[in-house]
Design a protein that fits this description.
Pfam family, one: CsbD
Domain CsbD-like: 3-55
Structural class: mainly alpha
Distance between the termini: 17 Å
Oligomer: single chain
Protein name: CsbD-like domain-containing protein
CATH topology: Protein Yjbj, Chain: A
Largest sheet: none
CATH class: Mainly Alpha
Number of domains: 1
Organism: Caulobacter mirabilis
Radius of gyration: 11 Å
Family: Belongs to the UPF0337 (CsbD) family.
Helix content: over 70%
Shape: globular
Number of strands: 0
CATH architecture: Orthogonal Bundle
């Protein structure tokens, strides 16, 4: 699943910013679709533990896996 997110990162940055509005454009550039980088930036910006950040990303992945999510 994450391969699809990484491969479509530029198209998905809007959805990522909707989910995690504290992430900056610079953060998104640094993350560049890398799951571990996203976890780290969510932890940094929101003060979340790694487990909470990973849980949020799993929920994001689940929503992105719904039919047509990549077409919107």
């Amino acid at each position: 699943m994450w391969d699809r997110v990484e491969g479509n990162w530029k198209q998905l940055t809007g959805k990522v910013k909707e989910q995690w509005g504290k992430l900056t454009d610079d953060d998104l550039t640094v993350i560049a679709g890398k799951r571990d980088q996203l976890i780290g930036k969510i932890q940094e910006r929101y003060g979340y533990a790694k487990d909470k950040a990973e849980h949020e990303i799993r929920e994001f992945e689940r929503r992105m896996d719904e039919p047509r999510s990549f077409d919107r």
